[in-house]
Request: fold
Amino acid sequence: MTKKLYWEDGTLSSFNSNILSVESYEKDPSKYVVVLGETAFYPEGGGQPSDEGTIDGKTVEYVYEEEGTIYHVMDIAPPLQQNVECKINWQRRFDFMQQHLGQHILSAVFEKNLSADTIGFHLGNEFVTIDITKDTLSYDEVKEIEMEANSIIYKNLNVYSHFPSTEELKKFPLRKAPSVSEGIRIVEIADFDYSPCGGTHPSNTGSVGIIKVRKWEKMKGQVRVEFVCGFRALKDFAWKNQQINEMSNLLSIKDVETQTFVERLVDENKILHKTVRNYKKELLDYQIKELHQSGELYNGCNLVTKIFEQEDFKNLQFMATNLSQFPKTIALLAIKGEKSQLIFTRSKDIEVNINKLFKEVIDMIDGKGGGNPQTAQGGGSNTSNLEGLMMAAVMKLKNEYLK
Reply:
């Protein structure tokens, strides 16, 4: 059993301890697991990631607990020695402490104000989430919860740890039942919340700084709430504040008017896009008629050939589809850009295997593709020979397919 110094003093960032064992790490033989007589390194568990730091100046990458023993995963094995210096990455630890105590406060307020229990908790490197027993959540409810949670922070209530006996445990007004039957630790926020927890927390609520709910979403009959505390909340506010200021300056409006203005822009943009689509369709319809009229009549068939510069391939497909609706029509269309793209098609009243014709010429542009007897499409990298391909396809049609 490893003595847990982080339960005695969550602010302990450096300490000395004896190395009891150094062994190969089963999950990664290139690393080692070190057991100390006592440790302030927090092992992963209860939704909180493990601490990082150093033992004897060597990096501790990960910490976990099994049957009461805490294992420190390291890339370099320290020698067995007494009174070795150990240091915790305090910035990381304090961040997790802010988030974890913030979760206790937020969960307690959800339970007290909205009768919503917390049934899931995850402390990530960027955000924290809790899953609460509620079908929906409104902005007004979130504002109420945030105000109450932050008022608890500003009261700077003391935070205590208790290790009660079975009889003593019955006297605590617990927000939730313990998940273990032995070694139970109760975290108390003075006269406000009592919760079984093995994590690390500051000694007072003021150290949390601030709690800010970022967003929430429905999750299988419950709501997942994403939030940040302390320095994370400050960082979150900083980039949002910068963006809202830059947007309002760009639009020459007040920052509080940004949402309304952007909503109007989005609506206007939708109308504009619809108008442009209509104009594009009218233009394409005109191009299709012009292409059909420009075709070469040969043995009762209208041969339409055209190479476009930098055209959208979807437009090319649209033109090909519509040209194939004209009787006795064969269309050979291509785009010349960074690469060559082609589509060959015909009307249903012509017995020409377009896919066979396409396969016979596509190698001329180092291309590939195919289709069916009526339509084939593809592309190639040799754009310099696209004109030659089109000429070859026309000659084959005249000399082999339309004789």
User: Anything to note?
Assistant: The two ends are 93 Å apart (CA to CA). Residues 3-88 form a domain with the Elongation Factor Tu (Ef-tu); domain 3 fold (CATH 2.40.30.130). DSSP finds nine helices and 22 strands in the chain. The chain has a mean pLDDT of 94.
